[in-house]
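Thread amino acids onto this structure.
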């Protein structure tokens, strides 16, 4: 049985004061969600405020990015140890906005993912096709490449803890959600590809989240699909009311 994960990606929103308010609101609304994992991923500068605000609840903390070295002359970067120290247990790796605007590649995704595991963080690895790729019938080819390159070389103990987020780029922040059938088709393909890489048993344990305009009114149907194990939520995670409705779908 795969425990669902509902994760909020706050992107570049919420200063420390706003973070305290949102996290406190969530704490009161989702604290009892024991059968599912709730993760919030604020910007780096708000992680400490969020960690303090969620203390005493089961809400977990995640970061939106990290670098693959422990320390050094890497101006502007954040190490996995820094994230651990501040209270993170998850880290998003390879979000499409990072691939699109900040030059992330399958190779950097792979380095970050492996470093996250060896540092005691659980990576949420994002993959997904663009609209042009979908319209060019290249969706499966793109997903397969992102998986074969992005999540290669894991040890068995790591592989089963991996979290994948399938986020069709055309559905992120656009209000256009993949239909539950489109999402399920992609999720089933992802699980099959992972089975080819790490075996059926491992693939059966890995959680695959859907991301792309998830809202309180579409979460239930998405979660009803066999291979959808949760959601990575952008816009709708920025208000306690909408995110708690998603968590309590
Ligand atoms: C995301 O940022 O990962 C995302 C899915 O955003 P949104 O829910 O706003 O589409």
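Threaded sequence (249 positions):
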């Amino acid at each position: 049985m795969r425990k669902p994960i509902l994760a909020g990606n706050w992107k570049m929103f919420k200063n420390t004061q706003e973070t305290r308010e949102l996290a406190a609101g969530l704490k009161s609304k989702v604290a009892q969600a024991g059968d599912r994992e709730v993760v919030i991923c604020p910007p780096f500068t708000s992680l400490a405020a969020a960690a303090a605000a969620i203390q005493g609840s089961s809400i977990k903390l995640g970061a939106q990015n990290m670098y693959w070295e422990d320390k050094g002359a890497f101006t502007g970067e954040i190490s996995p140890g820094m994230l651990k120290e501040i209270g993170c247990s998850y880290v998003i790796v390879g979000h499409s906005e990072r691939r699109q605007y900040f030059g992330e590649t399958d190779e950097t995704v792979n380095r970050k993912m492996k470093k996250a595991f060896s540092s005691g963080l659980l990576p949420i690895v994002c993959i997904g096709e663009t609209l042009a790729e979908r319209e060019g019938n290249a969706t499966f080819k793109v997903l397969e490449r992102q998986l074969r390159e992005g999540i290669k070389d894991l040890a068995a103990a790591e592989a089963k803890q991996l979290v994948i987020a399938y986020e069709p780029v055309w559905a992120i922040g656009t209000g256009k959600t993949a239909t539950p059938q489109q999402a399920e088709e992609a999720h089933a393909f992802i699980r099959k590809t992972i089975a080819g890489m790490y075996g059926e048993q491992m693939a059966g344990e890995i959680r695959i989240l859907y991301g792309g305009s998830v809202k309180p009114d579409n979460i239930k149907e998405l979660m009803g699909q066999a291979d959808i194990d949760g959601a990575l939520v952008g816009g709708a995670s920025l208000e306690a009311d909408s995110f708690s409705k998603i968590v309590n779908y």
